[in-house]
Design a protein that fits this description.
230 residues, alpha/beta, Rossmann fold, two-stranded antiparallel sheet, 6 helices, 11 strands, globular
Length: 230
């Protein structure tokens, strides 16, 4: 019997209330477990990074609102979010898993980190960039995501479009030649990325872990966990 892959999930924190507690949706853990993985929450302890990257089979960088380096933003822009103890450990874990070519899944904040570590740039308030940008930051909001043909994400989802939730103010606005933008919102906002040079490195701007268990978006967790088996 094949053992289940062990998946490291960086914990979130209550940045809006002082950053005094780890605070992470159960949805990430449930989605990984449903896909056949064993999820483990990882705290912000730098000495854990090498051991986690060596011993675990895949890494999930979760959503959140933390202060990213100014160099990740377009000229003249900067993060509006609080400083966080999470940044250094999250980044080190992502880099370590990528170096080992172990599967990485970045969700929302995690997608932005994955993108910017590969030369992309972002903005702190996507709605301030153009008048035609639709609302992207709300508990009850949904919009269509159009999947680029021929991408890994298209193969995973088996569809050219899906409806997704949306909880973000920041957004990636330019991609480097190391990154493929694999989904867009109707207003052109980048909704997913992938790193072709890695075995599995996918970023989603939306939150599939908060969708119904039968939503097509959960196929990303299935593909991620399956990649972690090999």
């Amino acid at each position: 019997m094949t053992s289940k892959p062990r998946i490291a999930i960086i914990l979130g924190e209550n940045t809006s209330a002082g950053g005094t507690r780890y605070d992470t949706s159960k949805g990430y853990f449930n989605a990984v477990a449903r896909a056949g993985g064993l999820p483990f929450g990882i705290p912000y302890v730098a000495d854990l990074v090498s051991a986690v990257a060596d011993e675990f089979d895949g890494f999930v960088s979760v959503g959140g609102r933390i202060n990213f380096p100014q160099s990740w933003y377009v000229d003249g822009d900067a993060s509006q979010f609080p400083l966080s103890d999470r940044l250094a450990v999250d980044q080190s874990l992502m880099e370590a898993f990528l170096e080992r070519d172990k599967p990485v899944l970045g969700i929302c904040n995690g997608m932005q980190m994955l993108a910017c570590l590969h030369g992309c740039r972002m903005v702190s308030d996507i709605r301030a960039t153009r008048d035609d940008i639709i609302p992207h930051d709300g508990d009850d909001l949904q919009h269509e995501a159009r999947i680029a043909p021929g991408t890994a994400l298209a193969a995973i989802l088996g569809a050219g479009r899906i409806d997704v939730n949306t909880f973000h103010r920041e957004a990636v606005v330019s991609v480097s030649d190391r990154v493929v933008a694999s989904a867009h919102a109707p207003d052109g906002v980048i909704e997913a990325i992938e790193i072709p040079s890695r075995r599995f490195a996918v970023g989603l701007q939306w939150h599939p872990e908060l969708m119904a268990a039968d939503h097509r978006g959960h196929r990303v967790f299935d593909a991620f966990v399956e990649a972690a088996r090999s």
